Task: structure prediction
Amino acid sequence: MHRETIGNPLSWSAQKLAGIGRSAGAAVDGIGSHEMTLPEVNRIGLGDIRAALRKGVKDFAALRTDVITAVALYPVIGFVLAAWAFNAGQVHLLFPLAAGFPLIGPVAAIGLYEMSRRRERGEETDWSAVLATLTGRVLGPVLMLGCLLAVIFAFWLLAAHAIWVVTLGPGPYDSLSVLLRDALTTSAGWTMVLAGFGVGFVFAAVVLCVSLVSFPMLIDRPVGVPVALATSLAVARRNPGTTALWGVIVTVSLVLGMIPLFAGLIVVLPILGHATWHLYRRAVA
Result:
């Protein structure tokens, strides 16, 4: 009868550490781009956006249980952040927090891109298969790009806070209704609103251009962050009107999804995530 032997604890630990080291090495190695040749980018238009959204809806319908499980946490996070803003006397950050969600939305949709990729190829789309892919070579560049968006989000909050300080601040607001009244009925309030929209537009435009196809590309191809970013910028540069329209669609959809206590994100985020994958497939040859 075959008997399994238990290895020395030291050798077992060494093997596990070696495995972790190899995974970490692959993650770090994946950040850089060994091949610097950019893929060809295509011209895309309104028809491509429509097709991407249709396919996004189909993916959501086919994978409904899995994707709802994946994104159910985000409405909870939004609700917790809103509660913190109220309780900490930081009501003025409530709108910047909500408006900044599109800045980190591409990171939230990583698993959705992989699901769409697998469904397109007829592969397994369960979470174990998805998570197995998002390791090693893919994990490093995705985390690096995610950190970049997190830094941009942090700078946006700092900018929004600074705008509030020089207009309606620095005294804290305990009531959202009072903040809205002052924002809409005073000259300082309108200055804050207009400056906030202007600065927020710049942040949103930057994130839109750098994340338009970069995250799906990192999952789909063995490229590093530099090539993924350069390709995303190339797509935006070749299709400025379509890129702007896509940004408007994403922003409006996310705003509508946030209105019922962020609950609409359970539907909006998956559809946009799947659609982003299909838009990438049309934009990059």
